[in-house]
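Changelog-linked ticket: nickel (II) ion example.
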Amino acid sequence: MTTTLSNEQIASFRELGYLQLDAITSAEEVDRLRGIFDRLFAERAGWEKGRSFDLAGSYNADMTPVLPQILNPIEFAPELGDTQFRVNALTIARQLLGPTAEPWFEHAIFKPAHYGAPTPWHQDEAHRYDPGVDYEQLSIWMPLQPATVENGCMQYIPGSNRGPILEHRSLGGDPRKSALECIGEFDRSAAEPCPLPPGGAAIHHCRTLHGASANTTDIPRRAYILAFRSAPVPAPAREMFPWLVGKITPAAERAEAWKNRGGPLGRSARRIGEFTPQLRRENKTSRAADVGELGALPHSIVAERASWVTLPPCNTPSHSSKRRKALRFPAPRCRVVTHRVRHARKHSPTSAKPSRFGWKWRRKTPPVNSRRKARATPANS
Ligand code: NI
């Protein structure tokens, strides 16, 4: 079963910022996926890697999650790679974003029966911090049982995809919570619920305001989301959104601890492993997962990983050599992160000025010699 969009559907997506499809895959596949999801959530797959976390509620391992989520579930269930949903979703993404659209990340969300928490209103783009690149992104959301207003189907604000990015904050003002909530002005009464049969799909643009209500029914609401993006293009560096500054979630801390497991020896061994094509592929997939929405990782680090694949052009000789190192040793490390932040600053028009000899740092304190001169001048005069 293949699915493609008509011209009317494409036009409607551009106009409203979302699209509703009755079927994107078969009922048999949905049954199979439901079994995989139930297993992954029962095992809390990827907890120690920071892939599994509670999006909206408590963030301690010993507390019952109210909105559990697994980022990049394909890492823990490779059979997810072989689905008609994936094939159809890519076709649709290329129709909407252009032929260069590529899979970006994926996630699985489980909204427990009776107490599954609401998903706060947000724009996916508000999670993003990619200082040197720009791209368009969309998400294809598929429920694995009927999705209704009562169990938390998606809801959208039509046309919000054509508006600005509104002000957000961490859910409840707690920077250790993964979710963001929109606190900007918008008309909540304009929300359009998007009820779907199992195997249907709700597609939304990364700028579209969306949320979902709590699950008050007797069955859990599972959803599988594939995100795609257009080919990234170099863009001027921009400031990080204020609501991302200082945001660090327990899942992010677990992810960092996982990356550094085994200490320097473990890191070296994994770095050597990068030379095998299979590990390189796996790491690339897992880096893409890191940049997913929902703040699983500190956004400063997330952004560096996101732009690793397509570093914008940089002609500074010292940067070029670091860039080569970053490409040769793509495992995210502080050194690479530092470089990317420095790179963004260097190319920001306010922080550096080009000189005849290349880029020059604006000095915060005068050099030692000029201080000596300054002190010496009054005494001599
Ligand atoms: Ni979202």
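Closing comment: Example verified and attached. The first strand starts at residue 18 and ends at 21. The domain at 7-244 is CATH 2.60.120.620 (Jelly Rolls).
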